[in-house]
Design brief:
The protein is of the alpha+beta class. 64% of the residues lie in helices and 13% in strands. It has a five-stranded mixed beta sheet with strand order 2-4-5-7-6. The chain has a two-stranded antiparallel sheet with strand order 1-3.
Length: 380
């Protein structure tokens, strides 16, 4: 709090200094004007000028003109001085307000520029430079958020369009093969088995695509809330590897787990399992055939470090920088047979961060590595 106060004092030092100098200057001008009024008008040549004026205009003698001057000015000196002081005060105060409110007009113009999303930079008076910087920072942040939202919405719309298109292919296959089975009364058992197998594969693919639609909805419309429990992470990883065995066999992959026995972790078990499921699924999809996937888990100080390493095509740096973006897919060609909505890694990153952890990725020399760091004791 003290640091923020010091920063604000430092930022607006020039502004305060200018206000102080102008206030002192106005006070000095008022004092000089009143002194001149008192010294030269009431007790200077002003009396001689007014007596001569009365003599000439009214055509009277000196003594009568002097009496008029004394009666009009000298006897009302206090009232004249008070009126003069008030007049000077109001005139100078008016100038002071006009000068001071100019800053509010500039700030108002800057706010209008933010509301109207003007393309030009906001420019304020030099003494308002800290406000100018902050308003331009807000302006750039709003512009960036708007662009990010537009890109995200565009990617989402494109994805939904692709998924809707992809739904037609397996659905048409399912309907086609079911019609064959329904219409063909004399069909061999082998051909029947083949049609059923193909129909089942297409139906499973259709289910995956429908789940991706639900994934998009859940990711965008709901906040992740955690329900902590104590789990055996080693057993969770072993179970996950067992469940992925059919996928490993399809590409002749070997998955190796290197972890201590019975690593206990306090977390939301379902959501952490979802993170590791996404990472392992990603490793299988982008692994070369006949290679190994290595999973390691070890304690480091007060953290647990879990690594997923697989052998696959080196991912370019520009793609690695976007790999955790929602709806971003490495496979731009969108093969309908594989690849998801581009939400798996984005969801994994979000879950890890909600657990106060960190997830990173790197790719080099045909190795792809994801590292998850979770606190062994979650913060309160």
């Amino acid at each position: 709090m003290k640091n923020n106060t010091f920063k604000y004092n430092k930022d607006f030092r020039e502004f305060r200094t200018k206000i102080f100098i102008r206030t002192i200057l106005l006070i000095l001008i008022a004092m000089i004007f009143i002194f001149l009024l008192y010294r030269f008008i009431l007790y200077g040549n002003f009396s001689n000028w007014m007596v001569a004026f009365f003599q000439r205009v009214l055509e009277i003698d000196y003594e009568s003109a002097l009496n008029i001057y004394v009666y009009t000015f000298r006897n009302n000196a206090d009232l004249i001085m008070f009126s003069a002081i008030m007049l000077v005060f109001f005139i100078l105060f008016r100038f002071y307000l006009n000068w001071f409110t100019r800053y509010f007009e500039e700030l108002n113009s800057g706010i209008d520029a933010l509301i109207n999303e003007d393309s030009e930079e906001i420019s304020l008076a030099p003494e308002l430079l800290p406000m100018e910087r902050k308003m331009n920072m807000i302006k750039h942040t709003i512009e960036k958020q708007k662009i990010d939202m537009q890109l995200s919405e565009q990617r989402k719309n494109d994805l939904i369009m692709y998924l809707a298109h992809d739904l037609k292919t397996p659905l048409a296959s399912v309907i086609g093969y079911l019609n064959l089975l329904h219409d063909e009364s004399h069909i061999s058992e082998d051909l029947k088995e083949k049609y059923i197998s193909i129909t089942l594969d297409k139906a499973e693919r259709l289910e995956e695509l429908i789940n991706e639609f639900f994934e998009i909805t859940r990711f965008n419309l709901s906040d992740i809330t955690l329900q902590y429990s104590k789990i055996n992470l080693t057993r969770l990883l072993e179970q996950l590897i067992y469940e992925f065995d059919p996928m490993f066999k399809e590409k002749n992959l070997n998955c190796n787990l290197n972890a201590e026995q019975d690593i206990m972790l306090k977390c939301d078990a379902d959501k952490i399992q979802r993170v590791f499921d996404n990472l392992l699924r990603n490793a299988v999809i982008y692994s070369f055939n006949d290679t190994d996937i290595d999973i390691t888990a070890e304690r480091q100080d007060e953290n647990l470090v879990i690594k997923f390493v697989n052998h696959g095509n080196t991912i370019p740096k520009e793609k690695m920088e976007r790999i955790f973006e929602q709806f971003y897919r490495l496979d731009a060609s969108r093969s309908t047979g594989s690849g998801g909505a581009g939400l798996g890694l984005a969801v994994a990153k979000h879950i890890v961060e909600v657990h106060k952890g960190i997830i990173t990725a790197r790719s080099k020399d045909e190795l792809i590595e994801f590292v998850v760091i979770l606190p062994l004791i979650p913060p309160e």
